[in-house]
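Feature request, filed as a ticket because there's no other form

It would be nice if the structure record came with a short human-readable summary line next to the tokens. Right now we just get the raw output. Example of a typical job, pasted below so the devs can see what we mean:
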Amino acid sequence: MAANTYPFKIGQFECLAVSDGIITVPDMLTPRPFDPADPKTGLAMDVTCLVIKAAKRQILVDTGSGRWMGPSSGKLLENLGTAGIRPSDIDTVIITHAHGDHIGANVDGDGKPVFVKARYVMHRTEWTHWMARLEGEEGSPKGMLSITRQNLPPISDRLELVEDKATILPGLECLLTPGHTPGGMMLMLSSGKDGLCCIGDLIHHETELVRPDVFAIFDVDQDEAVAVRRRILPELADSGILIFSCHFAFPGLGHIVRDGDRLSWRPIAAEST
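Raw output as currently delivered:
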């Protein structure tokens, strides 16, 4: 059985990649009609969350799909428990952006926050965008917006809204990466000579390293999202920083590497062989 957690260190920080399972999305690599009820018509995509431990702090990055996106997903709480982490152990939840596969376990079936002792951190622009959507489409019960409606308003009384380049704690900074969503963020973790970039949904699949528009159907502002990818991805390759990509094959860790103008993904499994 494949492992569902992967521990690693970034300097003083102890980190844990935690699988939330697999979701099925429209297959844009070989475009074909997609039926959400038939996984064979779509593309299987990992969802992985990240725990960052610093001294007495335990920070969770995103909450996965919860009960919303099929039986192969929503495994975060189970896998945290297997690793000995209770929801009450988490003191901070950082939401990279508010799509359903990143906020789906914010609340339980009764609408109560799952991480009962945590403050939630989100970019101010992201919150403003989704609250306006919910207000403007108040009667809409369908799809991702329904997940947003169930999982964002209940955390409003424990939410900290941040601006670009906000410092969550020394060595952990949020950076705005708009386009996929207006207030989407990536996270930079640094300690000594070690660093990690959690790219959120900057990209979803390795193919986007050479075709940054291939999954643009998921983007709120497609032109901006593609432009941001074209700018940031080469910078990450040149920096040599370790990458955590929540939708790449578990545990989602590796490096973006450059061959001339061409970028590619080198997972840590390949680096250790």
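Something like this underneath would help us a lot:
The mean pLDDT is 94.
The domain at 5-271 is CATH 3.60.15.10 (Metallo-beta-lactamase; Chain A).
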